[in-house]
Amino acid sequence: MIYYKQNYAPAYPTLRRYANQYEYMFVFSKGKPKTFNPIQKIKIRNKEEKVAYRQRDGSLIRKNKEIGRETKDASNVWEFAVGGNKINHPAIFPEKLAEDHILSWSNEGDTVLDPFA
To answer: Residue ranges of the domains in the chain?
Structure first.
């Protein structure tokens, strides 16, 4: 999986390389993962579409139809802004990133190991 950083820190000129705007995320399991709760991404569209309906007498009724919500499973590329805290570290992972992984790969009551606590 890929963690795409919306507000990545640019590389220092002395590093002589391009800035890294993404990081890999690995999900390990023995065999198939026992749990998979896909995250749903919701797109809300505020567009209107012009439609026409023909009535039984042959006349047309023209209306503006609002296009509503659309949901789909998230892909393997997750986009977040880099997190922040009081120690001003440039590469803080956002809490929402960890939360989405916990929700995706475990159920309520499961034990979750955080080796980087």
So the answer is: 2-105
**Block means of pLDDT (10 residues each) for the chain, length 117 residues?**
84 76 88 87 63 74 67 80 67 82 91 79
Tokens of 8: 């990545």
Rounded to whole angstroms, how far apart are CA atoms 58 and 41? 41
Pairing of strands 2-5, 77-80: parallel
- Residue 8 in contact with residue 79, Cβ under 8 Å? no
DSSP 8-53: PPPPPGGG-S----EEE-----SSS-S---PPEEEEE---EEEEEE
Tokens 């606590």 belong to residue = 117
pTM of the model as a whole: 0.64
Can you read off the two tokens belonging to residue 106? 């475990």
CA angle 82–84–89, rounded 5-degree value: 95
Q: 45 with 70: CB under 8 angstroms?
A: yes
Q: What are phi and psi of 15, to 5 degrees?
A: -75, -20
